[in-house]
Design goal:
The protein is α/β, with parallel strands linked by helices. It contains 10 helices and 14 strands. The strands form 3 sheets. Strands 1-2-3-5-7-8 form a 6-stranded mixed beta sheet, with no helix packed on it. Strands 9-10-11-12-13-14 form a 6-stranded mixed beta sheet, with no helix packed on it. A hairpin with a 3-residue loop joins strand 9 and strand 10. The longest helix has 20 residues. The chain is globular.
Length: 271
């Protein structure tokens, strides 16, 4: 199995590839365009000329994680490419969806994505879609699974409460609440595991570290550091307490940005 973090600058685009028998399989976790408007996921799909995508996961609704998904959905529709499963967290609380988006352009884009997902469901291009949360699993070959560790009801509640309190007070805090819906994914194999964390805040790691330490008893092969290396999203005790394989990389998906990501303190801690 191969996991590729595409270089798109500030944002996430992750491709998971594997062989099943004599067939090539592809999974997509988030899908963004790069700073030049190029879409590495779409380019990969066009180059491979495959007629099926095993799964797509949209970890949360921020544009630097999903700005390229509409183009991919449109291409799949035009080319008859089947998406077996599409998972997301954008419909956990639909009435709060647009309150956690900053601009009218973002709102229009996400509305178009939701409508396209519904349309492709009806056409059978997307065979199955729905929200993804704690406890959901995706089976991969060789006894490998992708296990969803977050969001749980606790994170969903935090999202709802922050949006409710800040919608008409601080639009940036309302927008930032969407990070609580970030999918934290564990790729679990026989001898190792890996973590994909999107923009998850510290809350799910506190919950997981205290209540589900058994999830992290094995050896970490690689870990994506949440929210592009933001110090606010980094719980040092969790990350330094993990047992790593030799050479285990800490992945930070980041480009030029105005938020000072990644934090120098986070980088020093992981060095």
């Amino acid at each position: 199995m191969k996991v590729t973090f595409k270089n798109i600058g500030q944002g996430d685009t992750i491709l998971i590839e594997w062989e099943q028998g004599d067939k090539y399989k592809l999974g997509v976790v988030d899908c963004s365009k790069d700073e030049n408007g190029l879409n590495p996921t779409l380019e990969h799909i066009i180059k491979r000329e495959d007629q099926e995508i095993s799964f797509v996961i949209l970890t949360h609704l921020h544009m630097d994680h999903c700005s390229g998904i509409l183009d991919v959905l449109n291409y799949c529709e035009q080319s008859g490419i089947v998406i077996k499963h599409l998972f997301h967290t954008i419909q956990v609380h639909p009435k709060f969806l647009f309150q956690s988006l900053l601009t009218r352009r973002d709102k229009d884009y996400m509305e178009a994505v939701i409508l396209k997902i519904d349309e492709l469901n009806n056409k059978g291009i997307i065979r199955n879609s729905g929200s993804i949360s704690q406890g959901h699993t995706i089976q991969l070959p060789s006894n490998t699974i992708i296990k969803t560790l977050s969001p749980s009801d606790k994170e969903v509640g935090s999202f709802r409460d922050i949006v409710y309190r800040h919608t008409n007070v601080d639009k940036y805090k309302a927008s930032g609440a969407a990070n609580f819906l970030s999918s934290v994914l564990k790729i679990e194999g026989k001898e190792y595991y890996a973590l994909l964390t999107a923009d998850a805040p510290t809350e799910p790691f506190l919950r997981l570290g205290h209540r589900h330490p058994e999830e992290f008893e094995g050896k970490l092969k690689f870990g994506q550091i949440p929210h592009h290396g933001s110090e606010k999203n980094f719980w040092e005790e969790f990350w330094t307490g993990l047992t790593r394989l030799d050479g285990c990389p800490a992945v930070i998906s980041v480009g030029y940005n105005k938020y000072n990501h990644p934090s120098l303190n986070v980088v020093k801690c992981l060095a």
